[in-house]
Amino acid sequence: MRRLEEATGLSRGAIFHHFRDKESLFLALAEDDAHRMAEVVAEQGLVQVMRDLIAAPAGSEAVDHPAYWLGTRLEVSRRLRTDHEFRARWAERSQELTSATRARLSRQRAAGKLRDDVEVDVLTAYLELVLEGLVSHLARGLSAEAMGPVLDLVEDSVRRHRSSD
After folding, report:
1. How far apart are CA 157 and CA 151, in angstroms?
2. What is the distance between the alpha carbons of residues 78 and 147, in angstroms, rounded to a whole number?
3. Are 74 and 139 in contact (CB under 8 A)?
4. What are the respective helix, strand and coil percentages of the chain, to the nearest 5?
5. Which of 38, 70, 137, 145 is the most exposed place for a label (fewest CB within 10 A)?
6. Locate the HTH tetR-type domain: which residues (predicted)?
7. pLDDT-based confidence at 105, cuts 50/70/90?
8. Is the pLDDT of residue 120 over 60?
9. Hey, which residues does 159 pair with through a beta bridge?
10. CA geometry: angle at 142 spanning 70 and 84, to 5°?
């Protein structure tokens, strides 16, 4: 709350004038982060979101930097596992990222850049699973430095490969 007060210049009372409780405030923050992630997906793909998560500049304090999405994703993951009421509330809000990923993959497929032997819905689920795995990896405090080549492999795995006839 202190960081939010500093970032917005609002008092705790003013913040809670707009949100009934911390849960509603967190849902709004998570929804905003998901929206910004969906914008990146629409332009550059879900793998770019993952690259942004691991590219946190040392000492960055910018709350709108994609590295802060990690904290939100970690808390969403934790609450989804432990809080049935949160799960129901989040389900209403969480489709934007999936929809953006599916739309991006469909555009890539139509442009002939995406492998055509796997359905777009399967590729969407695959990339979302990789995102959740990356979030889990980072949550355990494991190195982000080695993830660049892994994400290169993930990206390559969904691309269409032309045969060299």
Report:
1. 10
2. 22
3. yes
4. 70, 0, 25
5. 145
6. 1-37
7. very high
8. yes
9. 114
10. 45
Interior CA angle at 23 toward 19 and 27, to 5°?
85
Please state the pTM of the whole predicted model.
0.79
Does the pLDDT value for residue 59 go beyond 50?
no
Rounded CA-CA distance 14/23 in Å is: 16
Q: Are 131 and 150 spatial neighbours (Cβ–Cβ below 8 Å)?
A: no
Q: Please choose, from the candidates 32, 133, 131, 30, the residue with its C-alpha nearest in 3D space to the C-alpha of residue 90.
A: 30
Has residue 99 got a pLDDT over 60?
yes
Q: Which residue pairs, CB below 8 angstroms and at least 24 apart, start in 134-138?
A: 134/50, 134/53, 134/54, 135/53, 135/70, 135/73, 135/74, 135/77, 136/77, 138/53, 138/54, 138/70
- pLDDT, average across residues 124-144: 90
**Residue 63 pLDDT > 60, yes or no?**
no
Residues recorded for the chain: 165
Do residues 136 and 70 touch, judged by C-beta distance below 8 A?
A: no
Q: Which pLDDT belongs to residue 1?
A: 62
